[in-house]
Specification:
InterPro entries: HAD-like_sf, HAD_sf. The chain has four helices and three strands. The chain has 98 residues and is of the alpha/beta class.
């Protein structure tokens, strides 16, 4: 059993001392990666270089039944995520999505 189910979250939390309020779940799949992060209270970032594209993302944003699949933020590439994290670090902010 993997994402987005409870047992994998329990393993991550227990073995790596993960604090969901301070964790950014990054992925390219809305139904696993993003749902996993949202289900357990993490910030979520969807990167549009894999399974999810803009068309699917727009459908999910307007479907009330798929709220769990909506990312906190979206990036065109992993490089954009790194640039955002560097920007936030340089500004001294406490959280990249806050």
């Amino acid at each position: 059993m993997g994402k987005p189910h409870q047992p994998i979250f329990d393993v991550l939390r227990n073995q790596h001392n993960i604090d969901p309020d301070q964790t950014l779940m990054i992925g390219d799949r809305l139904d696993t990666d993003i749902a996993f992060g949202n289900r357990f209270g993490m910030y979520t970032a969807c990167v549009l270089t894999g399974v999810t594209d803009s068309e699917l993302l727009n459908k999910v944003k307007t479907d009330p039944g798929r709220i769990l699949h909506r990312p906190t933020c979206t990036f065109e590439s992993v490089q954009q995520i790194l640039e955002k994290l560097n920007e936030v670090e340089n500004q001294g902010a406490s959280h990249p999505m806050g």
